[in-house]
Amino acid sequence: MKALTYHGPGRRTWGEVPDAAVRDPEDAVVRVDAVTICGTDLHILKGDVPAVADGRVLGHEAVGTVVEAGPGVRTVKVGDRVLVSCISACGRCAYCRAASYGQCTGGGGWILGHLVDGTQAEHVRTPFADNSLHRLPEGVTDENALLLADILPTSYEVGVHNGRIGPGDSVVVVGAGPIGLAAIITARLYSPSRIIAVDLATSRLDAAKRMGADTVLTVAEATPEAVRALSPDGLGVDVAIEAVGVPDSFELCTRVVRPGGRVANVGVHGEPAVLHLEDLWIRDVTITTGLVDTHSTPLLLDMLAAGRLDVSGLVTHRFGLDEMQEAYDVFADAGSNGALKVALFRT
Asked: Measured between alpha carbons, how far is 133 from 102 in angstroms, rounded to an integer?
């Protein structure tokens, strides 16, 4: 089969690899019908994730059809249309039993495209299929479902949920890429009084406005003083969501949050960021980090099927599966072409 493989920082190849196959009784093999590229894949290609081995098939998000199931698989069967979650879960360890699937110690967690071969291929082996695949409701398109493999649950759980957004809260989302936009979409479910979006690119700020941001600011405009001034009393926002993964964006979040507020870090960081405890220690600020657990995926799927979750507009560029290299080039150059999410489909 063909797949996109990693060969060290800056090097990737689309070519032939061994076919995906069932190795363990709880495995399933899924034919990939739709797949996407994540910002984390770009971090891998920059060398930010050294655990990724040479030759690894990248990717951790897909929608597809089960073509083979091991003898221990009970909840999905051959022919089922499924969402391949970015997180695999053994279902038995202490973390899985607490629904902290991202921290699975039984061989799961974020393994696809990281520790085992991933989804940017014609087929993918999915460990722990019972807990790591979600059957898709009728009427949910491949493209819309694809957005629930990672960015929607990540933004919801690590950003909105960890940030404890509630009715009337003021919120700033620093970074209006796909993750930041998904944070805006899911934050709106809780009726905040104001959502502020910050980004370098005007195209992404325009998208943030379309998806529910009340105020948009360029990075140059988003001084700490300017952001704090947008809160009702000028003390700062209730919740700051970091959705970039660079030191400046994290530090901005800590400087615009009000006393007693929350900073929810979602971005993947490849270098150290300064934590200004000399300022923060006295302000009762809560800072959270996290890897998505995907415990919210069934809920989000139900909302999507019911028409209560609008993800239209997040996919801006579409390709055939064999156009993987071009799709990577477009996604990596989002600043000049306005790309948000790219989707690749079996043709």
From this structure: 14
Taking the C-alpha atoms of residue 11 and residue 332, their distance in angstroms, rounded to an integer, is: 13
Distance of CA 251 to the CA centre of its chain: 21
Comparing CA positions, the residue from 283, 255, 187 lying closest to residue 196 is 187
Residue 116 DSSP class: B
The DSSP line for 179-240 is HHHHHHHHHGGG--SEEEEEES-HHHHHHHHHTT-SEEEETTT--HHHHHHTSTTSS-EEEE
- List pLDDT tens digits, range 115-151: 999 999 999 999 999 999 999 998 999 999 999 999 9
User: What one-character-per-residue DSSP string does 5-66 give?
Assistant: EE-STT-EEEEE-PPP---STT-EEEEEEEEE--HHHHHHHTT--TTSPTTPBP---EEEEE
CB 62 within 8 Å of CB 134: no
Q: What is the pTM of this model?
A: 0.94
CA dist., res. 158 & res. 330, Å (int): 27
Distance CA 144, CA 81 (A): 14
- Would you say 133 and 28 are in contact if contact means Cβ atoms under 8 Å apart? yes
Q: Measure the CA–CA gap between 225 and 137, rounded to whole angstroms.
A: 46
Q: Map tokens 């996290």 to a residue.
A: 290
Percentage, residues of the chain above pLDDT 90: 95
Structure tokens at 39: 């910002």
Q: Which residues contact 8 (CB under 8 A, 6 or more apart)?
A: 47, 54
Q: Other CB atoms closer than 10 Å to residue 47's CB: what's the count?
A: 12
